[in-house]
Design goal:
By secondary structure, the chain is an alpha/beta fold. The chain has eight helices and nine strands.
Length: 263
């Protein structure tokens, strides 16, 4: 396969602290990213952190999306839980609504919704889970997800705009699913560079077993995700930024981001 056919935008999970505890160096990451996924209080984040994160994103002209997770602060939303479809829809409405209140206060548009951690993985595997979460997303708001999975299928079924994600600091299994670690492991920067370049240039990735896996991103808009809790995250994100910039320049993608901070 050839290179992807859209501009590569970089998204990072932010606001993942609680009280006096901080997870990542958010302020140091904002100059390098296009899009932020802001924690909404269930896996991490609290009202003051959400408010400050939205204000910082606005100041840096960074698009803001909601990052809802399972109600599991201690496990950081990376432990699976069994919830009914009604609960999954309700916790999505609750979390997205909380972030949107802060966005509305600052005059910032809700750009998208990106589920967090194990909830994301559950949606990839289970069509009913994916549908339940997407029913909690406001009409007209896109979802970021893994192409070729039940996330894409549910988005198509429910008429939700879908953005395909690739990953700068997450490995893939041979079936194309993500390897979700509760605690992020370090990466060599040369491996990050190769990992991102391969995905952008070939629509494929080398899985943990060494096999080559096709990534069926089709003609969806693309965003590369990195995490603020990865060891050495600043260097990882700067490396991914450089790969994205090189790719966008060489392929002269003409998409222009819509007004980032207007309602």
């Amino acid at each position: 396969m050839g290179p992807i056919k859209h501009k590569a935008l970089l998204n990072v999970d932010l606001g993942e602290g609680y009280g006096n505890l901080k997870c990542g160096p958010d302020a140091g990451l904002l100059p390098f990213i296009d899009i932020a996924n802001v924690a909404c209080g269930f896996h991490s984040g609290d009202p003051l952190i959400m408010q400050e994160t939205v204000r910082q994103c606005k100041a840096h002209n960074v698009l803001v999306g909601a990052h809802p997770g399972l109600p599991d602060l201690q496990g950081f939303g990376r432990r699976e839980m069994k919830l009914s479809p009604e609960e999954l829809e309700a916790i999505t409405i609750y979390q997205v609504g909380a972030l949107k209140a802060f966005l509305d206060k600052e005059g910032v548009k809700l750009n998208h919704v990106k589920p967090h951690g194990v909830l994301y993985g559950m949606m990839c595997r289970d069509f009913e889970v994916a549908c339940a979460v997407m029913r909690g997303i406001p009409t007209g708001v896109p979802i970021f997800g893994l192409a070729g999975t039940n996330m894409e299928k549910a988005a198509k079924e429910l008429g939700v705009e879908f953005w395909a994600e690739m990953y700068g600091d997450v490995k893939y299994n041979a079936d194309g699913m993500l390897v979700i670690d509760r605690i992020k492991k370090p990466w060599k920067l040369e491996d990050v560079e190769k990992h991102v370049e391969q995905q952008l240039l070939t629509e494929s990735v080398t899985a943990v077993d060494g096999s080559n896996v096709h990534l069926p991103v089709k003609d969806y808009p693309i965003s590369i995700c990195c995490h603020s809790d990865s060891p050495g995250c600043v260097d990882i994100i700067q490396t991914t930024r450089a790969v994205c910039d090189k790719f966008n320049k060489e392929h002269e993608w003409s998409e222009v981001l819509a007004a980032r901070t207007s309602v």
